[in-house]
Amino acid sequence: MDSRVAEHAEVLVDWSARIEDGDNVVLNVGPDAHELAVAVAETVGERGANLVTTYSSGELSRAYKLGHGEDFDDDPAHELALLENADVYLSIGGGRNPSEGSDVPADVREAYGKSREELREARMDTDWVSTVHPTRSLAQQANMSFEAYRDFAYDAILRDWEDLADQMANMKDILDDGSEVRLVKGEDTDLTMSIEGRTAVNSAASVAYDSHNLPSGEVFTAPEATEGEVVFDVPMTIRGERVTDVHLTFEDGEVVDYAAGQNEDVVGEILETDAGAKRLGELGIGMNRGIDQFTDSILFDEKMGDTVHLALGRAYKSNFPEGSEDEANDSAVHVDMITDVSEDSFMTVDGEVVQRNGTFRWEDGFEG
Amino acid sequence: MDSRVAEHAEVLVDWSARIEDGDNVVLNVGPDAHELAVAVAETVGERGANLVTTYSSGELSRAYKLGHGEDFDDDPAHELALLENADVYLSIGGGRNPSEGSDVPADVREAYGKSREELREARMDTDWVSTVHPTRSLAQQANMSFEAYRDFAYDAILRDWEDLADQMANMKDILDDGSEVRLVKGEDTDLTMSIEGRTAVNSAASVAYDSHNLPSGEVFTAPEATEGEVVFDVPMTIRGERVTDVHLTFEDGEVVDYAAGQNEDVVGEILETDAGAKRLGELGIGMNRGIDQFTDSILFDEKMGDTVHLALGRAYKSNFPEGSEDEANDSAVHVDMITDVSEDSFMTVDGEVVQRNGTFRWEDGFEG
Fold first, then answer.
1. Residue A43: CATH number of its domain
2. Same structural domain for residues A140 and A246?
3. How confident is the prediction for chain A on average, in pLDDT?
């Protein structure tokens, strides 16, 4: 077994989920994640925890939904009881084809989702962590060879997380103390946003940081009153379409003009969803330098080092301190778009430069 | 997909487990049983039942146990809650290597088993059914090509179960009404057993018949007071060893002499286990003519048509009618041994011939 598989298991169990003796663990495994599942089972055993392993397959889920039709029972008792008695829920993605759900009618998918709200809440009440095992399917999605993809994935996952959490704490402190962020890049991006009264989240791939993805590595907050323009030069897949070079213009916090290199109509559709879809829900600063290329997987893409991402739509409640009277932007969508800030770019908070050409203020080589 | 996979799923869901709208189903899937699991998921969906899929892997289980060591928590709450809230438990065997557990220390395996008694009871309280998906590993175990093995497995599984249940009901009625069974074959087998006061089980691969294996296809009861000798000419694997042509001599219900063609010492070890190991616990009449060869898998072997099997050791409580004062033979072992009765052989119940050369009294071609 590739030694990185065992390392991945240890990071997941110890750093991310903090599994301890006697914990009741549910391990949810994709069909091609078997190898990592075996390593996780060993590590969970070594920590003295109790293990139930569930199987997550796109083909199986598709077959069940197509067989069943829309009229699902709400929150089946056996599944709910499993989750309500679990301390930890580990999900290891490792599917064979991300398009398996593509021919399940939308109303069946929606009915299934709606029938599982209590289940979802019960899962979210555990110390849950999602990760992926690098599979051939993910390599294919990333347009990479399998070997190169594995190297990429482990570079992203096997970080010195303690150190990265410390780095990200610098950024969180600056955002928590600040009121206004300005992002400038080349000729087409000059955007200001208010972050007054918001709390940034240090997403350090551990439940101890209220962060539930492995890899993670971003600091994010909820901006408003956005003014100016921005170009997103990292490609992305939205609703199954490749979208490139999205250009947005904001006035009074709202998108007033847009363009894109490819599939501009997809951007238009998103903006038409509801009022909240025209406003930003997230400003995220990607700080995982193990992620250095777009692989068409949001788990990785949005944490890419030397990038900033903004999301149109729904904001996270975690960015609003307890007792805050501000309302989080609400929308049916949350669509992340990414811009590369490694060159010809800087970000200021309250007028002071925090990051220039990808280098942060507290790092060697920073030019203020 | 091979159309037989979908047929197998339908037999499992409808005939064996009798799954209905709203049932809470746990589907336990081996790593190489994916294809059947997809078909079962579709059928479970079509019946309007609710599905949780668990993953059963020898490699994963081995890793967990080796990591954990002996000190297991008893009956973890999340797994117990899942099973206690399940109506149906379907297990689809489809492992990759039956020897995966071979280097887990015996005391760890035993401790694990002992820690799961309530779990086992909760599972047995559901409408549970065990089947297997024909895999390359099972073909290997049977010394067969994969294609030939699949043909074999589906011949065994895709029976007209309603008709076979009716056939087996004839045999059950004869045994229920009878007092003494005599089995004669060639020169070396002439055995008499008392079955007075016993109830035979019509094991027709359905929870409706209190039968929990698919395939099944045997009628069995609990004999005693065995006298005479018997040769078991179908090979078998006992404790990892190939054992052939076991010859047992009984007096007063107890084995007084034994011999075997290969690995005679294994037979000796079994007989020395305890007092009950020298007595019979089961007389089973194999009636599944879809099973026509030994494949080194007890799920199939003991139901082979035109065979009779006897087990040394523990008897099943299901053969003792409620209120019976007879005690079931008790032992730590239950070892099935099989004899081919297709030629030069007959069986009588209370002196009347019931089966000759494999043909039953109620069948065409029977010669009394």
1. 3.40.1830.10
2. no
3. 96
pLDDT digits (tens, 9 = 90+) for B9-50: 999 999 999 999 999 999 999 999 999 999 999 999 999 999
Query: Are residues B189 and B132 located together in one domain of the fold?
Result: no
pLDDT tens sequence across B64-76: 999 999 999 999 9
* A46/B61 touch (CB, cutoff 8 Å), yes or no: no
- Residue where one domain finishes, among candidates A157, A189, A206: A157
Contact between A41 and B53 using a beta-carbon 8 Å cutoff: no
Cβ-proximal residues to B131 (8 Å cutoff; 6+ apart), any chain:
B8, B12, B16, B90, B91, B92, B93, B157, B213, B214, B215
CB < 8 Å to B64, chain A: 41-42, 44-45, 51
Task: List the single residue in A29, A43, A81 with the smallest CB-CB distance to B82.
Answer: A81
Looking at the structure, tell me whether residues A146 and A182 fall in a common domain. no
Number of folded domains that form chain A: 2
pLDDT per position as a tens digit, B166-182: 999 999 999 999 999 99
Q: State whether A60 and B73 contact (CB < 8 Å).
A: no
Q: What is the pLDDT of residue A99?
A: 87
| CA B18 – CA B14 distance, rounded (Å) | 5
Q: Is B275 exposed, middle or buried (0-12, 13-18, 19+ CB in 10 A)?
A: exposed
**B54, B199: one domain:** no
Instruction: Say if A365 falls within a structural domain.
Output: no
State the Cα–Cα distance between residues A36 and A333, nearest whole angstrom: 32
Kindly state whether residue B368 falls inside one of the protein's structural domains. Answer: no
Confidence class for position B336, pLDDT limits 50, 70, 90: very high
Q: Which of A133, A157, A181 marks a domain boundary?
A: A157
Task: Give the range of the structural domain holding residue A25, as residue numbers without chain letter.
Answer: 3-157
- Residue B41 has its nearest CB partner, among A22, A50, A63, at A63
Inter-chain CB proximity B38 and A31 less than 8 Å = no
* Contact list, B67 vs chain A (CB under 8 Å): 41-46
**CB atoms A76 and B41 under 8 Å:** no
| Residue at A202 is within a domain | yes
Please state the ipTM of this predicted complex: 0.91
Is residue B151 domain-resident? Answer: yes
Interface test with A, best of B50, B75, B87, B88 (most A CBs within 10 A): B50
Query: Do B116 and B185 lie in a common domain?
Result: no
> Within this chain, do residues B187 and B327 fall inside the same structural domain, yes or no?
yes
Helix residue spans in B115-200 (DSSP H): 117-124, 136-141, 146-157, 161-177
In this complex, the residue of A43, A51, A67 whose CB is nearest that of residue B46 is: A67
Residues B175 and B27 in one domain: no
* For residues A103-131, average pLDDT: 95
Tell me how far apart the alpha carbons of residues B70 and B114 are, in angstroms, rounded to a whole number. Answer: 10
Q: What's the pTM?
A: 0.92
Query: CB A29: neighbour CB atoms within 10 A?
Result: 28
Q: How far off is chain B from A150, nearest CA to CA, in Å?
A: 22
pLDDT at site A298: 85
Beta bridge partners of A43: none
Please classify residue A23 by burial: count the beta carbons closer than 10 Å to its beta carbon, then call 0-12 exposed, 13-18 middle and 19+ buried.
buried
pLDDT confidence tier of residue B298, bands split at 50, 70 and 90: confident
What the block records as the tokens of B151 is 């043909």
| pLDDT value of position B98 | 87
Mutate to test the interface with A, among B1, B29, B57, B64 (most CBs of A within 10 A): B64
Q: Which residue of B has its CA nearest to A89?
A: B78
Query: Does the distance separating the beta carbons of A48 and B41 come in below 8 Å?
Result: no
Give the chain A residue nearest B85 (alpha carbons).
A78
Residues A125, A106, single domain; the answer is yes
- pLDDT category of residue A98 using cuts at 50, 70 and 90: confident
